[in-house]
Amino acid sequence: MAKSKKKFKTEVQELLNLVIHSLYSNTDIFIRELVSNGSDAIDKLRFESLTKSELIDNVSSLKIKIIPDKASNTITVSDNGIGMTREEVETNLGTIAHSGTRAFLDQLKENVTDSPDLIGQFGVGFYASFMVADKVKVISRKAGQSSAVKWESSGDGSYTIDDTEKECNGTDVILSLRDDKKDYLEEWTIKRVIKQYSDFVEYPVTMDVSREETPGDKEGNEIKDTEKVTVIEEETLNSMKAIWMRPKKDVKDAEYNEFYKHISHDYTDPLSKIHYFAEGAIEFRALLYLPSKAPFDLFTRDERKGIHLYVKRVFIMDDCKELMPEYLRFVKGVVESNDLPLNVSREILQEDALIKKIQKSLVTKILSTLKEMKDKKLEDYLTFYKEFGPVFKEGMHFDFANKEKIQELIMYESSKTNSGELIPLKDYLNRMQTDQKEIYYISGENRESAENSPHLEIFKKNDIEVLFLTDPIDEWVTQSLTEYDGKKLKAIDRGDIELDFLKDKEKSEKSAKADDKKYKNLIKHIKSKLEDRVKDVKVSSRLTDSASCLVNDEFGMSAHMEKIMKSMNQDSPPSKRVLEINPKHPVAKIILTLFKNDTKNKKLNDYIELLYDQALITEGTPIKDPLKFNKLISELMVFEGKKLTEKK
Ligand code: ADP
To answer: Of 37, 69, 241, 519, which residue is least crowded by CB atoms under 10 Å?
Structure first.
């Protein structure tokens, strides 16, 4: 195929601009990124060779070589891994596969000055080369193919791609260094960077190192007064020690962190790590990490690097979903087992009893680590919960066996916490009123809407704490979290509220009965008018300040949930709710008087409509006929206004 010049996708160019204008101050990491890519490519080749042994001649020749060249001002990172076809080069280096890139870039542009390391949430990977180079060339040959491809770009909007030749499979990334980055041609700089960032890479990272040597005689003794000669030797710069195989006490925090960045392609240090060897009935080694930041596309990402599975020191895959339940999909790390077959496939993994046992052990370990974090390092736990809580809570639904442990880790804001402050269910229980039988909660879009809900009025008045469920997933979670420590969870915008543990219960019961009687006929009338929209009309015992509100029956979908479903384009039939009217409210009293005086009064219907619309507005549901609503309000304003101006 002929040479062609192509434009980068807009996203790539925007990302490149951000990289070039060095968002990230530590430029050393470009070497780490390229070495990681090389090591991933060798992993892939080794994996393929399990079924196609002809792909690798000699396992010990697998390596990543760094080639600095002062004459041409270039540094090359070369690997003999899987390589890329022309199509792969184009998709991998000309576009960004991650979904949600657009949103990320917008966020990044807005926050560039405040938080330059935001880019850490998005592994720029290969593009990091442009932090130090004004031109990047990639030459790649896919294993098992004879043709090679050359990709070249200056990061200025376009790249060229052409056929070329290459002696063996693998990829060479050749960077023409910017004038101020020539330091990366120095032997000691390269050695330092590799030691710091890529020491644990499992393949040799090598470099030709020159040494002045005095020639020796046959016995190896130096020959005096002879000229020194330059000897070039290929030196391995990394120790290649698999970090998860080393005893915990021998691994430094910095090493753990670097390894995390290597496997996760994250730029930020992890929040916590779990490193253990399981011995006994099942044997395996695990090094797991809890990231400190959720990727911006936590919910939408289709491809991710999660748990790397190794069998007998051979890399098998970098996202072994079978080892981690979905609700812990943010956990990264490595698991190595010697009891699995090397040719293990996805199908085998899904059915494998050993894998299931390992998964169980990993989950137990993660949950106990989180519990310990919550008890001893609450601040860290809150960081975790803020970032991953929405995903973690899915566990309530899917991990029945660990439900009890998970519910101890769930936290909510409440009507008695400050904004942003979270409490576990246990604390709620400890603060409950004497004889209170249920745990009360309300769901809403955010704290403000929960706080302003008319349903909260009676609870506020009686100083009863109500949990605020403001995460879109919360209401769904309550389907599994129906009870905690023998106390039922009760939505305060649903069904009847029985606050019979309150002291002045008798008094309020008497008054409720009297109200029921007083309003009986009006309620019937309202019901007939709103028949098509409400399920029932009742005198309310939960309102103190508002005139009306809408209430679900015990199992109905809340207004909040309905909104979520709509936003997900999931049409659910609009549910009919119960309209409750506050008998003590002046508006209700006026309507009652109007009704008693003349049941045919035209204004009566208008007021009933307004009462209903007000209830819709407070729960955040759009009203059917805003024009009519406005007209009625205007009329009332004119009426009221006239009275005010006449007085003057
Ligand atoms: P990431 O490594 O995070 O996926 P990169 O931008 O670094 O992102 O690389 C994009 C893709 O390009 C990789 O996923 C891989 O498929 C391919 N790639 C990059 N470098 C190499 C390499 N040295 N050998 C083979 N494929 C590579």
So the answer is: 69
